Each structure stands twice: as C-alpha cells, then as structure tokens.
Amino acid sequence: MKKVFFGVDAFFDPNGGHEPSTDPGADLLAAHRQALEILRSQHFCTYGQYPWDFWEKRALARGVPGELANLGRAVMREADQHMWEPLLQAICGWEDEGEGMIELALMAPNHARFVWEKLLDTDGCRGSYHPKTGEWISWIE
Q1: Suppose 64 and one of 41, 85, 93, 105 were both cysteines; which one would form an S-S bond, judging by CB atoms 3.0 to 4.6 Å apart?
Q2: Do residues 75 and 119 make contact, with C-beta atoms less than 8 angstroms apart?
C-alpha cells in the first residue's frame, strides 16, 4: 500500500518489508500493542512502558539513529498527552503503531527531524514563543 508522509512517498508494509520472524522490532510490536491497550483502558502506564517507549525501541531496532528515535518518541508522546488534533495524532503514529514515522525516519531522516521539531516547537501547530519576550502566543482561540 502506498502512503505519503509529509511529501515523501513510501510503500507501507506492516511487516517493514520482512517476514514477522525476521523483523528486528516484531517482538516489540506486541509490547507496543499491549501498552496501547493499557493506556486506553487505564489512561496511564508504568514508567518506561508507554507506547512511545516501545515505539522508540522498535525504531532503534529497525535502524533509526538514536537522536531521531528519541525525537520521534517525544512527538508521539506529546501528540497524545497534549491531545493534538486527530490528523496530527494519526501522523504521529497513533493509527498505524508508528510504522509511518519509522519509515519516514529511515527514508528521509532530515525531513523527519525538521517536521518533528516543528511539531514540538509549536505544540502541534497551536502556537509559538515570542522571540523577544519568550511569551507563548496561541494561534488558536
């Protein structure tokens, strides 16, 4: 299935182009799914056991550089914790278990870094800090 992530074409294969038994992140996917179920039912998880924690481990196992995996983890977390708009939550991995984010990070790491930093800097396109005063300026009313 072909998807487009921030202008980058990608062919999405839920197994990452591998048989499940050879995917280095396959075992972490089950843990990710379990954490997601717990988060949705209890609204919290044990520290280090959130879906974004398992996403970061999966990304690292698939070859995403550490700094970028950590940035992606932060984006996935903020999208949930700050209740970003549904479209942004989908872009940030909440509808595909983060596969699109991993693919983007592997295919276009500089593009992923740019987009993810902008999402974090603007709290999901909600505003920005004034460059002189440091005051938060909301873009929504």
Answers
A1: 105
A2: yes
- What gap in Å lies between CA 125 and CA 82, rounded to an integer? 12
Distance (Å, rounded) from C-alpha 103 to C-alpha 111?
Answer: 12
Token pair, residue 107, equals 């295919």
Q: Which residues contact 116 (CB under 8 A, 6 or more apart)?
A: 71, 72, 74, 75
pTM: 0.69
Q: Strand 136-138 to strand 127-129: parallel, antiparallel, or no bridges (unpaired)?
A: antiparallel
3-state helix, strand, coil in the chain (%, to 5): 55, 10, 35
* Dist CA 44 CA 66 (whole Å): 25
Kindly state the tokens that stand for 112: 């992923």
Average pLDDT, stretch 68-79?
A: 95
* CB burial of residue 35 (10 Å; 0-12, 13-18, 19+): buried
Please, are residues 35 and 54 in contact by the beta-carbon 8 Å criterion? yes
**Length of the chain (residues):** 141
Spatial CA neighbour of 100 closest among 79, 72, 67, 119: 72
In a 13 Å sphere around the CA of 87, the CA atoms on its Cβ side amount to: 5
